């Protein structure tokens, strides 16, 4: 079977929204990583880089995309199911509260068995390749009974909770001396997966504003967990709450939900943390319910758009909640807003995973936003001056991850490659558009280098002068192709091949039965193939050895045309065509011994 195609010039679609920022932020914008349980070489570290405004994990810039789950609200047999679904949604990290009253129901009586086995929960997250942000309180809020504080604290009627009251601090210290030694072996620096630990919770919203209390907690956490662990706070963006809830030595993060100006809200964090990574520790995917009131609901599109806005700023984010679960037994809390408002037994929270653990429309919308960190991103800027004579366009070593296709004034100039060519010679005029299409060829999945960041990780220079003012387009190509683009959106421009990135589209019909088959790319170089919106993967015929792609019969239509879309990155043949075969082809084979890696 032969399929001929028509070509289209690659350009960002109208639905793509650029984010303007300087080059130093580009690494964070695209920093979504795969995790494995393989330990990185010693020493392991997780810290704040105040100069580059990012986290460093083992010395490498890192940005997390996290979701909240509460082990106390999920039956232990369901822990694995919920965590796997969170990981498969694209999360690298989970955020976890530890409710004090769940474990110390009476003074000095501790329970860490069964559903209360927090260490087993942490071990499971590590087994599944998830990092953890731990929030051990002592106060957690979480719409949990008394915010996680034990009710027996009230046996002393005049006690002042969440303050420097000696009676309160004595109980807190006793609890922390039980809990934190259990947590310490799970810290990232000690071979575990806890990358950061929150001290207290939204303390700025509490009337006491007791800095002595925060300093006491800081000292206790440092004494019991060590000097290397990253400790942080979380507060709203209101100035008064940030004033009372932050303390030197605790990295200040903020929380807010969708529907706001993300840049303005992060400005609030910058007022208390002028340097360091932007972090939203509670991005609200929904809201809680109160008895007697309407069920809270938040638009999936609204949540997804807000998440995309956060990620485009290069910020780290935790989605609260990703799976809410259930307030079993008597553990639901209450609010007081002019009147007493008890919280329902369900803590569904209109979260991406429902109370029963089922994926929702919101989960798929969020996963689509996260998935934009895979595949292709277009970087665009303009030449700052005339270049009548050839100048050297260059990138630092290891800054192109993994291949960058360069176009100047819509003309293909060549390709820069990880561990390969890192310079091109170009000419142009001031104001000419310089595009670089960055391709992610796949993240390292084994060994010490799994922190494999993608995108443009350093300054692109023209005769050693850095280029600035880049626009960044995360290209949702899979979504566009599934919706019929470019078949339905663009006119035919040519039936001939061209150099550089371009789309080629066509149709074909199957001869009666949709058999499994293989497609061959005679004369093509490297790219991606879709049939009926299904992404069949990468082809790279001129490098080999694979010369064909497998086409499952299940993706083919019988009795109606099949749409085929090819994104050729380097250059198509003069007469673009594809061949369908009954077997795979390889242009060379190599016999070698196989060593186990799993």
UniProtKB/TrEMBL annotation:
Q: Name one GO biological process term.
A: carbohydrate metabolic process
Q: Which UniProt keyword terms apply here?
A: Glycoprotein, Glycosidase, Hydrolase, Signal
Glycoside hydrolase 35 catalytic domain spans which residues?
55-372
InterPro entries xrefs = B-gal_1-like, BetaGal_gal-bd, Galactose-bd-like_sf, GH, Gly_Hdrlase_35_cat, Glycoside_Hdrlase_35
Signal sequence span is 1-39
Record: active site = 202 (proton donor), 282 (nucleophile)
From which domain of life does this come? Eukaryota
Pfam families for the chain = BetaGal_gal-bd, Glyco_hydro_35
Instruction: Report domain Beta-galactosidase galactose-binding positions.
Output: 501-559
Which Gene Ontology MF annotations are present?
beta-galactosidase activity
SUPFAM superfamilies assigned? (Trans)glycosidases, Galactose-binding domain-like
UniProt entry tagged with the keyword Hydrolase: yes
User: Could you tell me which PANTHER family the record lists for this protein?
Assistant: BETA-GALACTOSIDASE RELATED
Please report which protein family the annotation says this sequence is part of: Belongs to the glycosyl hydrolase 35 family.
Q: What is this protein called?
A: Beta-galactosidase-1-like protein isoform X2
Lineage, opening ranks: Eukaryota, Metazoa, Chordata, Craniata, Vertebrata
What is the gene name? Answer: GLB1L
